[in-house]
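Thread: Newbie trying to understand structure tokens

Hi all, I'm a second-year student working on a class project, and my supervisor (Dr. K.) asked me to get a predicted structure for one chain before our next meeting. I've only ever worked with sequences, so writing a 3D structure as a token string is new to me. If someone could post the tokens and maybe explain what I'm looking at, I'd be very grateful. Here's the chain:
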Amino acid sequence: MLTLRADLPTPLVVQIVDGLRGLIAAHVLKPGSKLPSIRAFAAAHGVSVFTVVEAYDRLVAQGWLVSRANAGFFVKRRGDEGTPAGTSERPAPRFDARWYLKQIFENRNLPMKPGCGWLPNDWLFGDAVKRSLRQLSTSDTDLAGYGLPHGHLPLRSVVVETLAEHHVGVAADQVLLAHGSSQALDLVARRLVKPGDTVLVDDPGYPNLMFMLRFLGAQVVGVPRTPAGYDLQALETLLGAHRPSAFFTQPRLQSPTCSQATVAHLHRLLQLAEQHGFMLVENDIYADMDTGVRPSLASLDQLNRVVYVGSYSKTISPNLRTGFVAARPGLLDELVQLKMLSGLTSSEITERITLGVVTDGRWRKHLKGLRERLAEAHRSVGRRLEGLGFELFHEPEAGMYLWARHPDLPDSAELSRAATGAGIMLGPGELFLVEPRSTGWLRFNVAFSLDERLWQFLEERVALHAHSAQ
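---
Reply by user tm_fold:
Sure, no problem. This is what the structure looks like when written as tokens:
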């Protein structure tokens, strides 16, 4: 039923509790079914009776099992002896955009988070943030007023220099700082999208963006991703059937697939945008994680039909909400007005902290080390997934994600529900689809996928399916 490993740092009691919770949550152990006796379980798994007693007692206290005198331990049914104190019956999670936005933050305390969208604390540039905070605390900072509508000018000047290194020519007044890339995308969407408009997005793609566009009244249409970028034939078919106002896309290290659009695909996309009269919104928030030097839509177009969105939150800290938009002058001015209407200015204090980090002498060394660490994690996690029989969509050895599926695990939502019971937050594929449906695809954050407990869980699920198929 379970595989226990004494060589892991996780205590055997915890392994038993987490494993049985996962089996119950996945309905492998049905409500009302009897568990092996304490002595039988101990003998079968080579552990002490006292270890099993403690594990069973914990599961009773947590409301997963019920103990019946002279009968043994049973999986708790709904209504068995009432609901234990401190617990409540919860329906199975609905895997949609609203669920994702809520649960991905509520489940931060789960021990393992291979489905999350941020980096571990020790992968970030925390020392530089602390140095920047100390410098800010001793400077003569005006706390009484608001910041500039465009955002802190010295940081915008750094953005201009960085974009110039990537062959995008902009002036400082063509850059708008925002409260993370999410606010940046929201401002752009509210300017470009009207109720009833058709808007193209990557499929699979970013759930928050899809929800945002639908909230604005847009008809969201997915453009299939490929390892080389886009299914161009499908895109041209869609353009023949729709007149989109915009295409929101991530050409580089796209979430969730981590695919990279080739230069040929970028050129063709720009040609189609010109031919069919739609804007391109390039979400390039993973640019600093790219190990290669490659053109962007913005560099090829110079912000004629392209609006460029970037962020510092992925590589410095998710709590440091600093993103930006670069656009042609007239359009950028309208985005500034929308920013002021919705929330006045962004935080100059946050922008000053970010400035201190990106002008720190160790910033480029941090990025180099982060890229190398991610590349090694990609190789390690990719090998482990393939060793279990998973198919990888793409192997970029850069960025944060691997998109993978197992032929014997066709429903990633079911797998994710079982994982939650075992203390693991996975990224079920249907979250990322334009039209949610059952799928085996999963998004793995490679930085959070190095824990042996994750691989034990996946091994057990694969083995469980193989056993049930016999």
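A couple of things are worth pointing out once you decode it. Residues 363-387 form the longest helix (25 residues). The two ends are 15 Å apart (CA to CA). Feel free to ask follow-ups in this thread.
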